Structure formats: C-alpha cells, structure tokens
Amino acid sequence: SEVGVLYLNNDNETVLRKVIREHDLTFTPLFTAKPHVFVSSASPLARKKALTLEDLAPYPCLSFDQGQSFYLAEEVYSTYHYRQVIKASDRATLLNLMVGLDGYTLCSGIICEELNGSDYCAVKLDSDEVMTIGYLARKGTTISKLGQKYLEEIAKYKDKALR
Predict the structure, then answer these.
(1) pLDDT at 128 over 80
(2) Inter-residue contact 105 to 75 (CB < 8 Å)
(3) pLDDT higher than threshold 80 for residue 127
(4) Residue 60: other Cβ atoms inside 10 A
(5) Residue 138: per-residue pLDDT
(6) Closest listed residue to residue 135, CA positions, set 126, 147, 127, 121
(7) CB count, 10 Å around CB of 40?
(8) pLDDT band at 110 (very low <50, low <70, confident <90, very high)
(9) 118 phi/psi in degrees, rounded to 5
(10) Which residues, at least 6 apart from 43, have a Cβ–Cβ distance to it below 8 Å?
(11) Are 51 and 123 in contact (CB under 8 A)?
C-alpha cells in the first residue's frame, strides 16, 4: 500500500506525529471533519438531527479491537469512559451488533452507501472536536497515478465531512 488514510485530533496528534517521523512518513491533510455517530437507520438515535455523548449513554458503544493503543484507535473519543463498550475485530460483526443492539460507533461522518448499503447513517455529534483527515506516504516517494486517483476520490467526500 502506498498511502494510508487516518485522522489526527487533540487526543492522538502528538503520538501519531512522533510515529510518523520515526518511520520516515509524511502526513498530508486532505480536509477536516466533525465527529458523527454511525448507527443503524432503524435505531432511535437515527431520528435525531444531532446527538450528545449523554444521548448515547443508554446504548452500547461499538469499537474495533485491533490490539493497539488508544492513540491508534479508529474511533474519535477513544479515551472517553463509556458505560458499555463492545469490541469487535471485524466490520461485519460490528454492523450486526449495530442493528441488533442499537449500538453505535463514532466516525468522521463519511460513509459509503456502496459499501454499507442504506441501512446505516451518520448523525452529527454535538462536539467541538475536529478530525483532520489526511494520508500517509513514505517520505521522498512519488505517488502513482492510481494512488493519485484514490486520493482524488477521497477528496470528493470533503463536503460531506463538513456538514
């Protein structure tokens, strides 16, 4: 893989910038996004225009368990103390739990209907947090035409991320 997509925020930026430096990588910002709550379209949470962390308290938080530090968590607010957290190691299990338990996960708000179908949605989280979405590449390398096309496709989501 010649590029990797990730986000920086207040909780992970210092550690990730150190890791990026130590591994001779560069981080190039693409756009900023506000945190959203990713839920099943059938969830009671899906009917709201915006949610707070307090609104989420009765529902299980779903998280990818990749055996890594919380600095490398996929979800924003990885250091927040949730009442109930269920960890899954694969996307299908996470999506099934989302539907079956009215669970949620936190995300950038960028969801691909082609990948997830219309059974899921992203609801804005009432938060001052900002996620800088960008990509990693090896220092001093030129990204291929295919890699450039991939980054162009990601950049198309910029407007969705700012809503």
Answers:
(1) yes
(2) yes
(3) yes
(4) 18
(5) 96
(6) 147
(7) 21
(8) confident
(9) -95, 10
(10) 59, 98, 102, 104
(11) yes
